[in-house]
Amino acid sequence: MAPGPASAPAGNLVPVWLDRLASVGWRLLATAALALVLWTIAAVLASVTASILVSLLAAAVLAPLVQALRVRGRSDAIAAAIGLSVGVVVLVLVVAALVVAIAPSVRDIVLAIEAGIATLRDGLAGVGAPGWIGDALTAVEDSVRELIAVNPAALGETAITVGTVAVLAFFLTYFLLQDGDRGWAWGMRLMAPWKAATLTESARRAMHRVSGYVGRTAVLAAVDAMVAGVLLVVLGVPYALALTAVTFLAGFVPYVGGITVTAALGLVILALAGPYAALLTIGVLALTAALAPRTLARTALGDEADANPVIVMLAIPVAAALFGVLGLVIALPVTVFLLTAARSIVMVLGLGPIDEPSATRVAWGVPIWLDRLAQWSWRALVVGGVVWVGIQIIVLVPAVMVPVVLAIVIAATILPIVEWRIRAGWSRTLAVASVTAGSVVLVVIAFAAAIAWTVRPMREVMVASLDGARDLQLGWLEDAVAEIGRSLTINLGGLLGGLLVLALSVTLWMLLVFFFLRDGPRAWDRLTAGLDGPRRDRLDRAGERALDVLSGYMRGTALVSLFGAVTSWLIMAVLGLPLAVPIGVLSFFGGFIPYIGSFVSTVLAFLVAVALGTTTDVVIMAVYTVVFNLVQGSGVAPIVYGKALSLHPAVVLLAVPIGGAVAGILGMFLVVPIVAIISATWRLVIEIIESDEADARGEARESDEAGTPGGTALAESSAT
Predict the structure, then answer these.
(1) What CA–CA distance (Å, rounded) separates 561 from 508?
(2) I need a surface site. Which of 30, 292, 307, 653 has the fewest CB within 10 A?
(3) Domain range holding 36?
């Protein structure tokens, strides 16, 4: 039962008003606590959250095109690929045009804004304005000056974050366009039909509103940019193209963007063309901002963003705190989507069968939807707390838990070989000992070869990659490659310097694997001995399924990694590029981190070609990088992981960065099989947990049948 009274006040000591207020209060607290936990998770996993939001936004925009292609007979995969390709091409062209227009004039524009602020401050001081206004303008001037101060370390971290979000969002968008409708139907299958229909219609309406919002915002931003561009050209203001591009960009930030860019244009024009031109510009832009939405409301786009301005103004700082500049852009579409979906969720929670205690709570002023949301919330908090404690045990005691977890994974991987030897007539101890020893020898040889092939050339790979980034004149990419190089160098250097620790770890793993394989079945039998027949059968099936998932994951990941290593080595060897072997080895080990590892290794190979290859080599490696990640991400990996784990690739894609945020490289490697085990066994676990209630319901049903006319005879007949 949930905390707090369910029906009557607690005696005469508690006033009725306090009891009823507490009934509402604990529900609000439970709901708020869950919201706070979700907020914290979203902040910790900001890259994953941003990727999901960006992919939802992109899928909403591209869905009409993909649907039209499906109607014309294209398959889901082809339609999704074409739609995503069109979206990427348009985005790249727009971003490239904006960068070309803005980048050369950024410093000059900032200096012009500073000059405009100084002119305004001097003018206000001349007419006797209060001193605090001048101080405020000075603070603004200092903030503007910071815009051109570049922090290389922060820029490198930002580049890595942006790259991670871009890669995740790219693949997630493809999967949403291809399988989003089927995934939604799968998620709705356990709900009552009317609930599923209500939520489906709400989601469809929300996506339509988001798509309309993007189109409407793009049109309004273009109108503002055209008006600003005409004014700048007529007034003869320098940097007209760059300022027009800035105005277009600012149009995608609701409310704040328009106000900020209007003020910035006014300051620039004040410094370069005088006060009258500045006032004219501000007036025309303000008039455009007021009239353009009213005019557009009469068109097919209409007023798609019907969110209350107060809610939007609150959502903007929240989104900015979570996702930075990206949050300013996605704040309004996400708010529109959430508000549309929330209405339907509240309606679903507030309808349906109502039991008597709930009816009493409604009489006290507690909405039924709030009661049900609170009941879900506090239970979700309890389950989440248990999961968090388990994660903390693994993270805080790595010296014990990491070898155990890795030993379980290795044991599950080689278990089929052990069983094959046992069927051939070997004793279990001999089969386990020989297979374990052989596996350890192979692992040691593989690691030794990898160290020999990569440690010494790794510095050359990173130097060449940095040179390639410099040749492309992309400072952010150079910082990102340097950060990757530091991570690889530290890890490999630590590996060489800790051979004793490595030897002890291998010995511990070997012993754990041996005992798990030899004594695991007996230990499992003793562990489940106290369970009755049906429960034990379900638990046995869950355990067998978990072992199959672990074994399939390792085999599947090895195949994906081998595919990446062979193709990387082959293309570089054919082109005659150096460092093909270390890049291939890096691709193999990187392949054990799905999607992200392969992406990083192929980018490094491309940068090596930029630094050391010809123009033809660079073009071929660029095409290879794109094609390889598309083929592996949307073809090879889904087939392998789908058959081995029965997981959709989108789940694998999201699980990897979550595991990295929780437990680093080891978490990125282990999170996928853990999720696969949960996905494969949760139904059996729920059946085990609910078996008491199911048995009780069955006994109650038999008792009712025995107490009805004819029921006694039926019960006696059954007993006989």
Answers:
(1) 26
(2) 292
(3) 14-44+358-396
Burial 542-569 (b: 16+ CB within 10 A, else e): bbebbbbbbbbbbebbebbbebbbebbb
Same domain for 519 and 605, yes or no, is yes
Tokens at 642, concatenated: 């789908």
Q: Is residue 70 domain-shared with residue 197, that is, in the same domain?
A: yes
Contact 411, 517 (CB under 8 A): yes
Find the mean pLDDT for residues 449-458.
68
In the chain, count of helices (H) and strands (E)? 26, 0
For residue range 67-110, list pLDDT tens digits in order: 898 888 888 888 888 888 898 888 888 888 888 888 788 888 88
CB atoms near residue 698 (< 10 Å): 10
* Residues 6 or more apart whose Cβ sits within 8 Å of residue 79: 66, 67, 69, 70, 177, 178
Statement to judge: residues 333 and 451 lie in one domain: no
Average pLDDT, the chain: 75
* Token pair listed for 675: 């999720």
Taking residue 414's Cβ as centre, other Cβ atoms within 10 Å add up to 18
pTM as predicted? 0.72
10 Å CB burial of residue 536 (0-12, 13-18, 19+) is middle
Q: Does 552 share its domain with 668? A: yes
Distance of CA 437 to the CA centre of its chain: 40
Is 719 among the domain residues? no
Model confidence at 306: pLDDT above 90: no
338: its two tokens: 């959430």
Burial class (CB within 10 angstroms; exposed 0-12, middle 13-18, buried 19+) of 585: buried
Judgement on whether residues 179 and 34 belong to the same structural domain of the protein: no
Nearest residue to 145 (alpha-carbon basis) of 116, 107, 118? 107
- Residue 299 and residue 321 in one domain: yes
What are the tens digits of pLDDT across the range 13-52? 778 788 888 888 888 999 999 989 988 888 888 888 888 8
d(CA 106, CA 112): 10
Q: Is residue 718 part of a domain?
A: no
Do 323 and 449 fall within a single domain? Answer: no
Query: How many structural domains are present in the chain?
Result: 3
Segment 424-438, tens digit of pLDDT? 888 888 888 888 888
User: pLDDT grade, residue 126 (50/70/90)?
Assistant: confident
Write down the residue that tokens 């320098």 correspond to.
238
Task: Let me know if residue 60 belongs to a domain.
Answer: yes
Write out the two tokens for 208.
């339509």
Taking the CA atoms of 423, 673, 631 and 597 in sequence, report the sign of the dihedral they define: negative
**Coil, helix or strand at residue 406:** helix
| One domain for residues 111 and 234 | yes
Short-list 601, 590, 650, CA closest to 624: 601
Q: What angle do CA 337, 342, 347 make, to 5 degrees?
A: 140
Query: Would you say residue 638 lies in a domain?
Result: yes
The domain boundary residue, chosen from 348, 377, 406: 348
CA separation for the pair 340, 334 (Å, rounded): 10
Buried b (16+ CB within 10 A) or exposed e, 41-67: ebeebbbbbbbbbbbbbbbbbbbebbe
How far from 177 is each of 63, 79, 81, 91, 697, CA to CA, in Å? 7, 8, 8, 17, 43
What pLDDT is recorded for position 29? Answer: 92
Domain boundary among the residues 338, 372, 396 is at 396
| 458 Cβ neighbours under 8 A, 6+ residues apart | 488, 489, 492, 582, 586
Q: Tell the burial category of 250 from Cβ atoms under 10 Å away from its Cβ (0-12, 13-18, 19+).
A: buried
Q: Identify the DSSP state of 453.
A: H
Question: Residue 93 to residues 62, 97, 98, 103, 120: CA-CA distances in angstroms?
Answer: 16, 6, 9, 15, 38
Of 90-99, 295-304, 495-504, which has the strongest mean pLDDT?
90-99
Reported as half-sphere exposure (CB side, CA atoms, 13 A), residue 323 has a value of 23
